[in-house]
Amino acid sequence: MPGVHEVVHPLIGRHLTVLRNETTRPAEFRGSVRRLATLLAYEATKDLGSLPTKVKTPVAMAEGCELTDRIGLVPILRAGLGMVDPVLDLIPSAEVWHLGLYRDEETAQPVRYYDKLPPGKPVDTALVLDPMLATGGSAVAALQTLYEWGVGRAKVLSLIASQEGVDTVAAAFPQAQVYVCKVDPELNDQKFIVPGLGDAGDRSFNTIIH
Fold first, then answer.
1. Is 81 in contact with 69 (CB distance < 8 Å)?
2. Whole-prediction pTM
3. Under a CB-based contact definition with an 8 Å cutoff, are residues 67 and 48 in contact?
4. Which of 32, 83, 119, 200 has the CB geometry, 3.0–4.6 Å to 129, for a possible disulfide?
């Protein structure tokens, strides 16, 4: 599907297996989230704008480059927070703007409760960080907000998605790019991805109610 990039790599397969395993402890879960976020961000940023520059090494002058895009990271609270630091490690100059969205358990529709996008000129490229793309509702709501803000280019980075979720995003915003580790076939009656990995936020922050 145009605009949807399912990134295939042995390291992605391994760390996704860790996330899927129901016995994985929160600390190990968070570690694999960080590593997968790094790998996704590497793929999603291959087309960032840059300009050539020169630097002086201890030995001689060398060719280099500087990024020209103003980049914003938009984690979807709360599960997206675990993806912020690894992406910032790759792009230290990135700005971080927060969108608070939660899924209404009765309707499965996104509800926005927090919006920290600044007034003024938007970033050139926005990376939406959302570990789970289930129905696609939260991603669509986030993209709608970003495009209304004036962002020229937006990409969604998700660890796992359902086919319904990526179809929903592609139908609503065909210009958006989605980078995902794995697209699973379906959702269950509770709108959880199947086979999925459970609730990424609860598993990351150790808030599963037993």
1. no
2. 0.90
3. yes
4. 83
C-alpha of 47 from chain center: 17
3-state secondary structure of 41: helix
Tens digit of pLDDT at every position of the chain (210 positions): 568 999 999 999 999 999 999 999 999 999 999 999 999 999 999 999 999 999 999 999 999 999 999 999 999 888 899 999 999 999 999 999 887 766 666 665 667 766 767 777 888 999 999 999 999 998 999 999 899 889 989 999 999 999 999 999 999 999 999 999 999 999 999 899 999 998 888 888 888 766
Exposure string (b/e) for 10-49, b if CB count within 10 Å is 16 or more?
eebeebbebbbeeebeeeebbebbbbbbbbbbeebbeeee
CATH fit for domain 4-47+70-205, picks 3.40.50.300, 3.40.50.720, 3.40.50.2020, 3.30.420.270 = 3.40.50.2020
Answer whether 99's CB lies under 8 Å from 147's CB.
Answer: no
User: Which residues are CB-contacts of 53 (< 8 A; sequence separation ≥ 6)?
Assistant: 63, 64, 65, 66
Distance CA 181, CA 150 (A): 28
Find all residues with CB under 8 Å of 169, minimum gap 6, and list them.
133, 136, 139, 140, 143, 156, 176, 178
